[in-house]
Write a sequence for this structure.
């Protein structure tokens, strides 16, 4: 086995083949397609984090349900709890992603900005996903 070998997903080599569907659904034909593994993983990660458990038909265990944190008291301990929760679900459901979570909270506006900087193992792909949660 070669050490430091970079893994390239074969579907990324065909630039005209879609890999997945992007969110939100606002494309010209309802669905905006993703054409690279990088785009597909980012969309899947955001979709998973924003979907609540029991929300997905035929897969009630799918989702992290981050919206449940919107109505909790925003404190240093609460922010740390959210960071640890996000890292644990990413580790469990996305084992090929290694990430760092940073949270900026604005308690007077009940807003949480979650920034996930991650890399996909053995691919050399690095990306950032942002999720803005607010109850207003």
């Amino acid at each position: 086995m070669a050490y430091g070998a970079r893994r390239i997903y074969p579907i990324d080599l065909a630039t005209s083949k879609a890999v997945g569907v992007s969110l939100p659904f606002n494309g010209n034909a309802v669905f905006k397609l993703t054409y690279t593994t990088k785009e597909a993983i980012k969309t899947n990660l955001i979709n998973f984090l924003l979907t609540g458990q029991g929300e997905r038909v035929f897969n009630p265990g799918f989702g992290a349900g981050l919206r449940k944190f919107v109505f909790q008291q925003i404190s240093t301990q609460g922010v740390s709890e959210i960071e640890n929760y996000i890292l644990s679900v990413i580790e469990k459901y996305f084992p090929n992603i290694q990430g760092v979570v940073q949270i900026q909270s604005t308690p007077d506006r009940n807003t949480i900005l979650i920034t996930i900087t991650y890399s996909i193992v053995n691919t050399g792909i690095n990306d950032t996903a942002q999720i803005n949660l607010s109850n207003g």
Remarks:
- The radius of gyration is 17 Å.
